[in-house]
Specification:
five-stranded mixed sheet; two-stranded antiparallel sheet; alpha/beta; Glutaredoxin; 129 residues; globular; 29% helix; 7 strands
Length: 129
């Protein structure tokens, strides 16, 4: 179970299996995440609400408070969720921040990638909306 930045529980199951989902494992201190941001923003602009864009703020060297401050100053392309206990990190075996997972509408993983240069728009383009 993840939380929104107000501390409310958010179950990923409410998203997965209903429509395509993009998860980005992210941190305020991650320079690669910052480099990936234009790609994420472009994909979000293209696919909008047809894909659930979820930014999973990992609970390593940051707090909900620091994430909230960052989000207040910088608009991010998706809903920001807090993974303070690392449950999503473990569930998706995220090797690092900037790790992106795309799931199709049935909940099947169709893309994973890490780093500043990823094929996110191409991965989303293969999905049936």
């Amino acid at each position: 179970m993840l939380e929104d930045l107000d501390g409310n529980a958010v179950d990923l199951a409410t998203y997965i299996g209903t429509k395509p989902v993009l998860l980005e494992f992210w941190a305020t201190w991650c320079p690669v995440c910052k480099q990936l941001e234009p790609t994420m923003t472009a994909a979000h602009a293209q696919y909008g609400d047809a894909v659930a864009f979820l930014i999973v703020a990992v609970g390593v060297n940051q707090s909900v408070r620091s994430v909230r401050r960052h989000v207040e100053r910088h608009t991010l392309p998706g809903r920001v969720l807090w993974d303070g206990e690392g449950r999503a990190v473990r569930a998706f075996q995220a090797p690092s921040t900037s790790y992106v997972v795309v799931l199709d509408a049935a909940g099947k993983v169709v893309y994973t990638g890490v780093g500043a240069e990823q094929e996110i728009e191409e991965a989303l383009g293969t999905l049936k909306q």
